[in-house]
Specification:
Number of domains: 2
Largest sheet: 6 strands, mixed
Structural class: alpha/beta
Helix content: 25-40%
Shape: elongated
Strand order of the largest sheet: 1-2-6-3-7-16
CATH superfamily of the largest domain: Zn peptidases
Order of helices and strands: HHHHEEEEEHEHHEEEEHEEEHEHEHEEH
CATH topology of the largest domain: Aminopeptidase
Distance between the termini: 52 Å
Number of strands: 17
CATH architecture of the largest domain: 3-Layer(aba) Sandwich
Bound molecules: 2-acetamido-2-deoxy-beta-D-glucopyranose, zinc ion
Radius of gyration: 25 Å
Strand content: 15-25%
Number of helices: 12
């Protein structure tokens, strides 16, 4: 009861301070104020929190049972759980940041290094997950049931609650084996809200904050994806989404008349041209020349035309004067966006055919220096070499680095020129992110902890110079 009333009181104060704070100038002291309150709250509540369960798999299951699925993710519960878990590990410091509202906290866990002047290493895990349709699952998606073969079923088991726990368990193991362990570089872990809905109230706000600037991040490790074979996958870039609407105008007319340049005819010509482009790209994939994520995908997502009739259907004897189509287009960082724009203007929606278009670029394509959003995976990038050797040192194998088909929060780092890799150590595992019956095997989860032990030791103790 006591702890509850304190919590409510604290939130009121935070809301109150947020209302006051619009200017950036007084933001920093307010954040300190909120941190102090959070600390107070944690001190008060830690007296009543029980010790986490004795093994890592059970702790993973507990975290999976916290509902952080959209549209109503319980971020405060997830952050409170992770905060307690981090506090149960010696040497770890925690801080909760409120970059938007009290309902969207961001947890920052820190293992201080002996040389804080060196750029730090930041590991990321988003707190949220996509919704699940329980009726399509063999076990309830929040049950985290472990079957006889060790498969743990839950929404978020792969994307990406596994890494959230594995980071902490890896540090726990490192310190258990070597209580004097102190890395050279400071290691941070951030647990951020809203990745699945674009990160606008999560990573996007975080990278803009002074709290982030103060971390002086030199390398960023984010989520990756499961691999169906014996090699771990690693991602060095994301594809960038464009939402494109092409619109056709044309002569309207009676449904019985044959004439040139109706809106429908103009649009259908474009639809055919985009389909041929899509086919050519897909052929490169089918021929094994490029990976899915290395080509431009252009998928039709809607068609809109016709004149509505009063019975909710369409008027059948009228050729409409407007028609449009929507496309989800994804660009790998290797593609020249200006060339694609020219293709859209010249071929997909030419003004000569009474077409117009609108492109919504859903993400950046270049970093602050104008370079493609790509993290080098060769010896020009010392971080890559340290990462690769660390995975190999614990017996792991990496497959050829890939571009991710979709996007992650890593793009917010790459835009700032911070080298970023996507990696989730799940091998011999079906790829089930966002799918029904998402699961992860306990043995795979535990092996992943060993991989992170190696990565964390290597990256946080790396003393070489970095660009
Ligand atoms: C463009 O639209 C105008 C007005 O509807 C029409 O007269 C003309 O024929 C159209 N031209 C083409 C190429 O579609
Ligand atoms: C390393 O990779 C980067 C990014 O892909 C590339 O631009 C560069 O030419 C490569 N350098 C070497 C030495 O291969
Ligand atoms: Zn994810």
């Amino acid at each position: 009861m006591f702890s509850h009333s304190i919590r409510r009181h604290t939130q009121e104060l935070i809301i109150f301070s947020n209302l006051q704070v619009k200017s950036r100038v007084i933001q920093a002291p307010t954040m300190v104020y909120i941190h102090t309150l959070t600390l107070l709250l944690l001190l008060l509540s830690s007296a009543t929190t029980q010790q986490p369960p004795p093994d890592a798999v059970t702790r993973f299951q507990q975290y999976l049972r916290i509902n952080t699925a959209h549209p109503h993710p319980d971020y405060p519960a997830a952050v409170s759980f992770l905060n307690d878990l981090a506090k149960s590990i010696p040497n770890l410091q925690t801080r909760t940041l409120y970059l938007t509202t009290p309902q969207k906290p961001l947890l920052l866990v820190t293992l201080p290094g002996s040389n804080p002047s060196l750029p730090s290493v930041l590991f990321n895990s988003h707190l949220d997950s996509v919704p699940a349709e329980p009726s399509k699952w063999s076990h309830p998606p929040l049950s985290a049931v472990k079957t006889d073969d060790g498969s743990i079923f839950a929404r978020g088991a792969q994307d990406d609650k596994c890494i959230a726990i594995q980071y902490l368990e890896a540090i726990r193991n490192i310190i258990a084996k070597d209580p004097g362990f102190k890395p050279t570089r400071t290691l941070h872990i951030c647990y951020v809200p809203d990745e699945e809905i674009g990160g606008f109230d999560g990573m996007a706000k975080f990278v803009e904050s002074n709290d982030f600037k103060e971390l002086n991040v030199g390398f960023f490790l984010d989520e990756g994806q499961a691999s169906t074979n014996d090699e771990y996958r690693v991602f060095y870039a994301d594809r960038s989404p464009w939402h494109i609407v092409i619109k056709a105008a044309g002569q309207p007319g009676h449904g019985s008349r044959m004439f040139d340049n109706s809106a429908m005819e103009n649009l259908m010509k474009s639809v055919e041209i985009v389909s041929r482009f899509r086919e050519n790209q897909f052929d490169l994939v089918k021929a094994g020349m490029l990976a899915n994520s290395e080509v431009v995908s252009a998928n039709p997502v809607y068609l809109k035309a016709g004149i509505a009739s009063s019975d909710g259907k369409f008027v059948m004897n009228m050729q409409p004067s407007e028609a449009e189509a929507g496309y989800d287009v994804r660009l790998p960082p290797t593609v020249d966006p200006d060339l694609l724009k020219k293709r859209i203007a010249d071929e997909w929606a030419p003004a000569t055919r009474n077409m117009s278009y609108h492109i919504v670029e859903k993400g950046p394509l270049r970093d602050y220096m104008g370079r493609p959003l790509v993290t080098a995976t060769n010896d020009s990038n010392p971080w890559w070499m340290v990462f690769k050797h660390a995975v190999e040192a614990c017996g792991g194998k990496l497959s050829k680095p890939e571009i991710l088909s979709s996007t992650t929060d890593a793009r917010y780092m790459r835009v700032r020129g911070i080298p970023s890799l996507g990696f989730s150590p799940m091998k011999n595992t079906p790829i089930l992110l966002h799918d029904h019956n998402e699961f992860l095997k306990d043995t795979v989860f535990l092996e992943g902890i060993k991989v992170y032990e190696s990565i964390i030791k290597a990256m946080s103790s790396f003393e070489g110079t970095t660009p």
